[in-house]
Every structure is written in C-alpha cells, then in structure tokens.
Amino acid sequence: MRRLWGWRLAAPSRRDDVEVDIGPWAPAWALRLVLAGVAALALAVAWSGPGPQAPTSVAVAMGMLVAVLAWAPGLGLSGAVVLVAGVRVLFGGVPPLGATMALVLLVHLLLWLGAVAARTTRRTRVELAVLASGAREAAVLQVGAQTLAVVAAVVAEGGLPPGDGWRVAALALAGVVVVLALPRPRELWWRRD
Which of 25, 27, 100, 176 is most buried (CB neighbours < 10 A)? Predict the structure, then answer.
C-alpha cells in the first residue's frame, strides 16, 4: 500500500472491481422518442383551437423542430416548442377548457422530459426509479398548474362553461390520486444535506 497525504491507495493490481446494481431501465432513445411524441402532441393541441390553421410550410418546420429536439435534446429546443405553442394560443384564440388543461400538462411534461433527455447520451440507460421520483415532484406541481389553468379559464369565460363541471371534479380527484398513489421519496428534498 502507498500513502498520499494520509490516504491509503491500493496498488492498481490490487483494486477490486465494483458492480453497481440498477433497477429496471429505459434506453435514452426511448426517452427521446417519448419527448418527440409529447412535443408533437403539444403542437397539435395548440393548433386545435380556434383561428387559422398552419400552412404546410409551417407544419413541416414544426415537424423538423420536433425531429431535431429528439435528435439533440441538449440544444434546449423544448423551450422553442413551448414558444411556438404559446404564440399560437396567444394569437389564435383561447382553446376550450379541455384543450387548455391538456396543453398545460403537455408543456410541463415536455420541459421536464427535455431536461432529463438533455443529460443523456445516445447509449445512456435511464433508471425508471429516477423517472418515477421526478414524476412525483412534477405531478404535485401539475396539480397546482391545472388548478390555475381552470381558474384562469373560468375567469376568462365569465363562469364555468356548461358541461365542464365534470372536468373540475376530475381535476380534484386527480389531485387526490397523485398525492395518494405515487410512491413517497425516502428522503424529502428539503431535508437533504
């Protein structure tokens, strides 16, 4: 054994191999494929509202944006997809309450998946437990975001549209399910060292 400033170092020939067990995992390409699907769905929901539909050239450009996002998520193009969807909603008109709620969910999921996928390489394996722990934190935030979206839609429309009462009840029930069903983290984020 050699010593270096009080540390004992093993000779290279005597080092033990280390094996790290991981749980179930998903390949990074699957994560990127899901990211592309969420981005395409967010753009489709944004364009499903009132207002003129996108010309073919804009649709092709959005398809290319989604493809580049999936190929290189580290470029930060998730924000560009959100910007395109936001500009469409801003100038195209407010979509119905269900589409607004779906768009809030998709934008949040898009940004979260984009941040996770940006830290991967093509050969990375992402442990499902990592995704589940992040999903729990995102789901709690999503309940608040959906509540704000419903309140904003109700205020903008001057009241709850007929037939949308079940959506408000479903939102409240979804909040209860999120809190009860998702696994609790072993260590709370505010208690971490």
Answer: 100
The closest of 80, 52, 53 to 66, measured between CA atoms, is 80
Q: At 50, which amino acid appears?
A: P
- Confirm whether 132 is domain-assigned: yes
Rounded to 10 deg, the angle between the 77-92 and 28-46 helix axes is 10
Query: Is residue 27 assigned to a domain?
Result: yes
| 17-45 pLDDT tens trace | 666 677 889 999 999 999 999 999 999 99
Query: Is this structure's pTM higher than 0.85?
Result: no
**How confident is the model over 118-136, as a mean pLDDT?**
86
Residue 68 belongs to domain spanning: 23-185
DSSP string, 44-70: HHHTTSSSPPPPHHHHHHHHHHHHHHH
